[in-house]
Specification:
It is found in: Cell membrane. The protein is built from eleven helices and no strands. By secondary structure, it is mainly alpha-helical.
Amino acid sequence: MSIVKRVAYFVGLPILLVLIWWILTLGPKNFFVPTPGELGQTFFEVWAGPRFVTDFIPSVIRLIIGLIATIVLGIVLGVLIGSFRWLRSLTEPLLEFFRAIPPPVLVPLFLLLIGPTDQMRIAVIVSGAIWPVLLNTVEGVRAVDEVLVNTSRTYRIDGFARLRHLVLPAASPQIMAGVRQSLSIGLILMVISEMFGGSSGLGFTIVLYQRSFAIPEMWSGIIVLGLIGIALSMISKAAEGMVLRWYRGLKEVQRDS
């Protein structure tokens, strides 16, 4: 697909939606739904000013730290649990118990234990976003081809070498699928943690604008969250393309043969 077509597909639907939005707001003005022009002006007034430093940057930093911790912990624990059958049997009931708890209900608990700090908000992100990475990693490690495992043992490839050259590459498709899911969950939990126990950040700002009936400003915060989601998706696709380059090449060879 050419670059022109990619750009057209990427911006075509948003432009169409903005056009429909503009047409629907040509009539009597609705207090709760700003026009595209009004929202665009408000967007730059709010987020090109002090709010960018006091709210946007802290939220993004917390999100990045939380997601990095989520991915590292999820992969490390997933590889460990997936490598030992007895450990899987031991931890499975506990994992199912904690996975069933909705992460937002942990916010009051973290507020009591940690306090309304950045560490609390990062802990909320990790507590909910880790499950797709952890469980996908466990399943990916369990699904490693037994023939390849036995071959590596025959050639005395063990320890870190086996992990690096066999286990992680074989499990990487499922790991990346889990990472992709965790990104959106992390963004949601970032907002929730700031709404409940924050004095700054995007979630706090959106609620503040909503309570003060600053409707265009509230919408502008929602637009910022959507743009962060798009950026996370693009980064995820780029990382997945690099990590799974061998896997996609193998699939193309299998399809052509």
